[in-house]
Amino acid sequence: MLSAHYHIEMARLRHAELEQSARRYRASRREPPPLPAAQPVTMRIGTLPDGAALEQMAKRKLRRPPLAPLLIGELAGRPVAAVSLMNGAIVAERQDAAEDVVALLRLRALQLRRGHSRAGR
């Protein structure tokens, strides 16, 4: 017959196994962390006061500012990209978020150019 100490030790080991298994199960069931909240993008026609911000962006990219009229893309109230409605030239900040804004600006500029050409018919 097995001693009481042996039974107690077996019960402790089994309890530790079950605890570890439960921790692994709970960890696997955790939801992934939420995605960061997307920042709203503002698109608008460029105005004279945008000149300074566009000059700064263009200097950082060693380019000239795009020709007016411009479509400006803003994140958190700050211009991060601009596209010329005249020739499609683009200037943008050096950041990943600006890539998405540039894509939106290109699409909107295309829509505006198509609408303008249809209106002239």
Order of helices and strands: HEHEEEH
The figure for the number of domains is 2
If you compute it from the alpha carbons, what radius of gyration comes out, rounded to the nearest whole angstrom? Answer: 29 Å
Strand order of the largest sheet: 1-2-3-4
What structural category do the secondary elements indicate? Answer: alpha+beta
> Per DSSP, what share of the residues sits in E-state strands of 2 or more residues?
15-25%
DSSP summary: helix tally: 3
Poorly predicted sequence stretches spanning 5 or more consecutive residues: none
Number of strands: 4
Termini, distance in Å? 101 Å
Biggest sheet details: 4 strands, antiparallel
The average pLDDT score comes to: 83
Helix content: 40-55%
User: What coarse outline follows from CA principal-axis ratios?
Assistant: rod-shaped
What does this structure look like?
With 121 residues, the chain is of the alpha+beta class. It folds into two domains: 1-30; 41-119, no CATH class. Helices cover 50% and strands 17% of the residues. It has three helices and four strands; from the N terminus they run αβαβββα. It has helices at 4-29, 51-60, 96-119, and strands at residues 41-45, 70-75, 78-84, 90-92. It has a four-stranded antiparallel β-sheet, sandwiched between helices. β3 and β4 (90-92) form a beta hairpin. It is rod-shaped. The mean pLDDT is 83.
